[in-house]
Amino acid sequence: MSTLLELKSSVLRQVQRSQSLRSRREPPPTAAAGPPTPTRVPDRVALGVAKGNGEFFERMHKIVQKQESLLAATHAEEEIIAGPPPPECTDQAFVLEKATRNELDLLYEEAVYTVVNRVGVPSPEYVTNEGDLFNYLQKVFDMSQEEHDIILQRVRESKRASFSLRVSVMKGKNLMAKDANGYSDPYCMLGILLGQSPRETEERKERKFSFRKRKDKLEKRSSVKEVLAARDIHVTEVKPETLNPVWNEHFAFDIDDVQNDVLHLDIWDHDDDVSVAEACRKLNEISGLRGMGRYFKQIAKSVRANGAAASGSEENADDFLGCLNIPLSEIPVVGYDKWFKLEPRSSASKVQGECHLILRLFTAQRDTALTKMVSNVVIHQKLLSQILEYEHSHAQKEPYNWNGQVCPAAWTVLSHHAVQADLSPLQQAIIRWQCYSSHHHSQRMCYSLLLRLLRAVEAEWEAGDVQKELESLLAQSFKLYCDYCLSQMKSIRQVFPCTSPIAITRCELMLRTIGQVQSMQAFKAVCSNRNELHLEIATVIKKGTVEWYEATISHFRSDEGTLEEQLKRLVLVVDAVCVDVQSGQNVYNKLFHSSVKVDFFSISFRQLEKLVADDVSVAMERVCGTLEQESSRLSQTMGETLFELFMSLKTLKRFREFLPLKDTKMLALTGFHNWFKTSIHKWLQIVHEKSMERIRKAVEQDQLEPVLQAKHSISAVDVTTCFGQVREFWTQLAWPDSAGAFIFVTRLTDNFCSEAVSYSELLKRKIERSQLGRDHRSFTVQLCVALNDTEHVRVYLSGLPRELDWRGVEQAMEESCGAEGKEQVNKALNGQLYNADLDLQRETKRMITHLTDKMLPELRRYIQHISLSPDTINNDDAVSPLMKYLDSTLVILSESLVKENLARVLQSLWELLLRMILDSVAENRGVQVEFYTRFQYTIETLVRFFHADGEGLLLEDLKSGDYKALDEELRLNKCSSFELIEQYFLEKISQQRILKHSRFGRISVKCYYDAPEQRLTVEILHAADLIALDANGLSDPFVIVELCPHHLFPNSRSQRTQVKLKTLHPVFDELFYFHVSPEQYRHRFACLTFTVMDYDWLSTNDFAGEAVAPLSDFCWPGRPNATPAGKTVQPFILHLSRQKPSEKPIMKMLEARTGDREAQEFVRRLKEIEKSMEEE
To answer: pLDDT by residue (tens digit) across 931-989?
Structure first.
């Protein structure tokens, strides 16, 4: 025997019947909050079904996806667009005036004078050829050869520059210890040794000069050739008890011969109270003293005069620690800043250690016209500005990114001039910053250069060393540069667009320069009134944001055209704002926050958000005013535009997540969704209409063929895709208002449910129209596909609680309205889904009925074959045609149906077979037992077939309902007439036991059994609440009592009470005796029957009711009624019943046995009672 193919799980039990979706019956209280999660199919399948409406949903889908793609495109553009950055904003207020020809001539003379009088040892990068320097200067100043020659001649005829040497004695280290404590008390003596002839120079090599000689050596020497003016001797402070002294003292010396003079420095250990140091100080007060001999004699006298009292010996004289001799001709152009190793004064001297000196040569007097007019600072500033203009204009590559590096000739001229002008490192740093920053205003350059210049100023800054002129220059440069940068920040979107990586880099560097300015001590000192630069930055960001928004509005012309056109342009504006905010959050905010500690995003977002809210609210007021008119209808294009505007605003509002918590309150777009309430309602209606139209077209074009690996068709995919898109639209709306969300979710759920039911009805009608002319197999397959389509949509609906976030709506309503709000959501939404599920199951059942109706002729033929088969045919042979047909049909069903539908079809087919067999058995009552035995075998075979060893229907589902009735019918038909009568009384006893109340009255009796005598005593006491069967509203009741069934008690006769006239509550109090043997009362069906009749004089007595009492209740040994004390037991109440015997199947079976006298007699008696009941 074949088994079921591909059956894997049990059938879903039938849901209780309910009203249709249209009547909106409430769900049962125990209904679950959400059906099980459905199995989803891919959302994006090739939708060739309903093209017109598909385009509508595609447009809506693109609107949903637009924001992500729009913002994602911002990042892509940042890396795609290359090339030079846009030009920076320039203002004439920032551009310096061009120098006049006369000013240039004077400045050119200064430059030529610098070249002619240059001193110092040039480094390798310097240009040493004077002609090359002049050629370069001619190009810088656009000077002709003739003009150059005139100026050069004038310079050569002018007085040569006089030079001076600035010496800074900084510190010493690792000096020799001369004192007993292991330390020394060092100090320095330094001066200029005047220029020597070549011969004298050779003699100097034989002996080293020292400022101090012992007395005996001085006296022996006839003369001292080194000439050192007293005013040129300087001494540092004494640093006690140290071998690493720090002096940090500065001295200046006039130089007569830069090429031959020598700087000499001695370091001494101070030992006596009045030393050479003090003598030198006093000696420097004497004017006109010349010659080293006189000088040292004076020192010696001073020492002797002051030191004799102390010791009277030379032992207290200062000790020599070392000396230095530095020829001025060896000093570099930019000077020395280094450690010099100390030298001994003779080969016998023992010294160690080093001394740190800073040496600078500069001009003490310059014979130029410009020097007499302005300071050296101004001259150097003008010279550098002129060179910068020339150098930048000749930059070959990326002038906007010029790093400020000048050619060697320019560097040579500038270095010599800075040295000759005695400009300190701080002065040079300030001048360079001022010139480069001013030049940047008119011709942009690399911001990293400006950042380095600022750091150089800060590194050299010492507030007390800055002259008033330089301080004013620095303050003015800071002001102009800050104002310039603020102007760039105001136009940051145009000057530094996010689409240009180069521009963003420049923006970052510019902000870092402003951050550097903010933190500089120099800026705080010279611009003390501008200590809130971050507030100025915030202000220009606001102004720039407003100007950008106004320009965007003007560009899109959002105030022109019809209302719909204005809304479309407004969408473009909001989208542009979203992109700008995204750029601000991702790019600009990081730059501003890290560099100047300003929250660019918060400032610009709050400004743009308010501007957008103001414009959109005005437009939406007009829209709402139009839609609220009764005759107004929202067009499809207007609906799409409003939806797109809503999505754009939602995207913009989402950026509030990046605001500080304190800034998220009271934003202008906080409640923007309220502007769209009316339009959303109308938009949902448009979506519903489009969905219905799409579903109709999908069904019309569907060939009802399975798609891909699934068992449903393309229309089911299209429907669920449509639902998914609508659900996605709702998800993207993310409606924040709980009450509004509840209304919209209810509307969406209702739309989904009605669309799903409509889809199933369309499928059913399509099946009905297409059944003609199709063979059974193709029709069955198509109907199976339609069933699967309905199930596919039904399963999708079961996931709506999750898809539409019912739980979130419930929680929101509970928070706002309490438990009543939650109950309202649960009741409304579950009610919709419950009724829709019932409707879909109803349509599924109708299609299944349609399928089984097609099978009905074949099934009837096979059932008839079993019924008419002669007894000589084997049962398997009689059932085989039916099973083969079912097996072949099941193959088709298993291949075509999903398991849920297969279970439903099998259950329906099983019920149909049961009814057909039951009808066949009912039509053949009274035949031979073999007939019923064969159908019993058929039922057992079908049970095994449909159960399929647990892979098919459940046994409890198979053996319920009609199966029980059929099984009982077959069992009873196989019984004898006596067995049927006994079964009849068993049913009567069973019904009597469960009868607890009756409108036909009751009777009170007492029964007890005398076992030795085998006598049953029956006391009929009284009756109550009998029904009125006479015209006077009363009855004349009496009771007939008898033992049943008669074939068990053949010798027993019925007995009756007296008639009680005109009463419904008769009192009888009569005794009756019956002989009952143990063999008789042991049968379960043995009983006493009490029949209450209404006595009529002129006609047949009327039946008032009956009751039965099983003998087992009071005859069995051990029962109280079966003891000698049985007379004292309490009476019991029997409720009367009035059932028509013909309604019982047993009656029909007995009646069909026309040849059985006992059966016919039993039926006759019961029919008399039924006839009496009908006559009433």
So the answer is: 888 888 898 999 999 998 888 889 888 888 888 888 877 787 778 888 888 888 999 99
What are the distances in angstroms from CA 1134 to CA 826, 991, 1022, 1025, 1090?
49, 12, 11, 12, 9
* CA separation for the pair 87, 444 (Å, rounded): 9
Contact (CB, 8 A) for 355 and 339: yes
d(CA 1141, CA 1160) in angstroms, rounded, equals: 14
CB 167 within 8 A of CB 263: yes
Note the pLDDT tens digit of each residue in 657-712: 888 876 666 788 888 888 888 888 888 888 898 899 999 999 999 888 898 888 99
Tell me the CATH number at 915.
1.20.58.1100
Whole-number Å distance between alpha carbons of 1083 and 421:
143
Q: Is 1019 within the bounds of a domain?
A: yes
Domain of 928, in residue numbers? 869-974
- Give the CATH number for residue 809: 1.10.357.50
Task: Check whether residue 922 and residue 1026 sit in a common domain.
Answer: no
* Omega before 1045 within 30 of 0, i.e. cis: yes
Q: Which domain-ending residue is among 407, 423, 439?
A: 423
This prediction's pTM: 0.66
Please report whether residue 1044 resides in a domain: yes
Cα separation of 906 and 901, whole Å? Answer: 8
Residues 6+ apart with CB under 8 A from 378: 469
| 118 exposure class (CB count in 10 Å sphere: 0-12, 13-18, 19+) | buried
687 and 807 belong to one structural domain:
yes
Contact 1036, 1090 (CB under 8 A): no
Q: What is the pLDDT of residues 308-340, one digit of tens each?
A: 443 444 445 678 899 999 998 899 988 899 999
pLDDT for position 959: 87
Orientation of helix 806-817 relative to helix 738-770, angle to 10°: 140
Whether 1048 maps to a domain, the answer reads yes
Residues 1046 and 1096 occupy one common structural domain = yes
Let me know whether 951 and 1010 are in one domain: no
Q: Reduce the DSSP state of residue 1032 to 3 states and report it.
A: coil
* Distances 946 to 380, 849, 1030 between C-alpha atoms, Å: 109, 18, 57
Task: Tell whether the torsion through CA atoms of 579, 584, 590 and 591 is positive or negative.
Answer: positive
Domain edge (last residue) among 940, 974, 1008: 974
Residues linked to residue 356 through DSSP beta bridges, in sequence order:
171, 339
* Within a domain: 214: no
Torsion on CA atoms 556, 557, 561, 565, rounded to nearest 10: 30
Segments in 284-375 forming alpha helices (H): 292-307
Strands 319-327 and 262-269: antiparallel
